[in-house]
Write a sequence for this structure.
């Protein structure tokens, strides 16, 4: 395949579209991160090397409220565990080994999984993954940097409503699970939110969110009592 | 824990989680315990994060910010209308900015 037809393929167009979209969350992450007290260098470090937006938002959220860093890291990693599931599914679809697989692993996130998993043939899946990963790398890191630098210059970033972007990202990730998950999943979401809010005034920031997630683990340990539970599809890749 | 240590730990941990998925045997996906973990924990975690960050004040304090809550309400409307991810984020930020400009 020549270069120009690669650039015009539908996989690449999808990748570019998503990359541009993620740029806005990158801006918001950069501002949130610097507002939380991270330096621009620390902000870009996270975007380049953690490279998974939800975990990054979760961590700087804890730093912003002066919470326990260990709890912040634990929350970020618990959120990052969904990438493990994407990786399990992507491994066969992409069929890469060795160094290529190790490099590709860095790009296993919501967006690349959403673009790649629906592709049926390997060549198309690889193109989709590579294009999305490449575009996201550039746009996510660059917009994080711009957001971080702008925060120092523009006094009041809240005027742009960027503080709503973090929770909106989480909401957009949660929504398909609520829609498809049935009553039990909605109950777990309500309990998680309620528990975290109730615990917020009492515990160091970061800990209430972990507490809510461990409450979910209790539900896991308890054997399921049969009943008409909706088929909880493992299909958590957002459309 | 110094901030840099937390950042490096997060970066290394996030990479290892991704790599573990790429390197692990695929039959793990069929494990019912893993499937339930994959369903339940992200739901509780995301719901808790939304609630805490939406109501975040200074330190441990909770705070009702009408503009921010309005922005999230607008995001819910966008999600109900099945708007794409980007549109949801833009709507949330724009509605929050708009309400703030109106003095809310």
């Amino acid at each position: 395949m020549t270069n120009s037809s690669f650039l015009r393929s539908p996989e690449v167009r999808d990748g570019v579209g998503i990359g541009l979209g993620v740029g806005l969350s990158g801006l918001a992450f950069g501002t949130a991160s610097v507002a939380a007290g991270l330096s621009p260098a620390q902000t870009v470090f996270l975007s380049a090397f953690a490279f998974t937006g939800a975990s990054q938002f979760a961590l700087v959220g804890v730093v912003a409220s002066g919470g326990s860093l260990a709890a912040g890291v634990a929350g970020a990693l618990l959120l990052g565990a969904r990438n493990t599931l994407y990786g399990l599914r992507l491994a066969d679809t992409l069929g890469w080994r060795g160094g290529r697989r190790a490099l590709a692993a860095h790009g296993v996130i919501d967006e690349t999984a959403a673009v790649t998993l629906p592709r049926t043939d390997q060549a198309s899946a690889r193109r989709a993954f590579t294009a999305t990963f490449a575009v996201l790398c550039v746009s996510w890191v660059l917009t994080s940097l711009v957001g971080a630098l702008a925060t120092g210059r523009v006094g009041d970033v809240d005027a742009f409503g960027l503080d709503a972007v973090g929770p909106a990202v989480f909401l957009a990730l949660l929504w398909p699970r609520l829609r498809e998950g049935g009553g039990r999943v909605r109950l777990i979401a309500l309990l998680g939110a309620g528990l975290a809010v109730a615990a917020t005034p009492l515990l160091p920031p970061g800990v209430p969110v972990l507490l809510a997630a461990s409450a979910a683990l209790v539900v896991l340990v308890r054997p399921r009592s049969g009943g008409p539970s909706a088929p909880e599809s493992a299909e958590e890749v957002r459309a | 824990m110094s901030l840099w240590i937390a950042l490096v730990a997060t970066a290394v941990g996030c990479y290892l989680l991704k790599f573990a998925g790429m390197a692990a045997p695929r039959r793990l996906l069929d494990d019912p315990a893993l499937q339930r973990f994959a369903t339940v924990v992200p739901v509780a975690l995301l719901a808790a994060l939304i609630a805490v960050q939406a109501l975040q004040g200074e330190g441990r304090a909770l705070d009702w910010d009408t503009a921010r809550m309005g922005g999230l309400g607008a995001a819910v409307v966008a999600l109900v209308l099945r708007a794409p991810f980007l549109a949801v984020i833009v709507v949330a930020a724009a509605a929050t900015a708009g309400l703030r400009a109106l003095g809310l």
